[in-house]
Amino acid sequence: MSKITLSGHIEVPKEDLNAVLTELPNHIALTHQEAGCITFTVTQDLDNPQRFYVYEEFTDKAAFERHQARVKTSHWGEVTKNVERFYTVTES
Is the pLDDT of residue 1 over 80? Predict the structure, then answer.
């Protein structure tokens, strides 16, 4: 089994920023509860409030894929549908 790491950032359109900020704590809490989640952080850039840095680790590819599937059908998935994602996913 290989650990999966995702790192990068998202760019949130100005008109979606309040919805993203409102839903983010719930998204983080739900992700931390997922089986296989090792770490999950999302931090807002101090100089550019529309940019959020994302770092996550999952125990294996299956756990990562379950997370991705949950996100697509969640409220977070809806409020971030216009977000641009800039990620690198690695397996180690």
Answer: no
Q: Give per-residue pLDDT as tens, 26-66.
A: 999 999 999 999 999 999 999 999 999 999 999 999 999 99
- Return the structure tokens found at 6: 């995702």
Closest to 42 measured CA to CA, from 53, 56, 30: 53
Token pair in block for residue 2: 């290989």
Return the number of other C-beta atoms located less than 10 Å from residue 7's C-beta: 15
Contact 41, 30 (CB under 8 A): no
Identify the residue whose tokens are 């409220």: 75
Site of tokens 């599937």: 69
CB 63 within 8 A of CB 36: yes
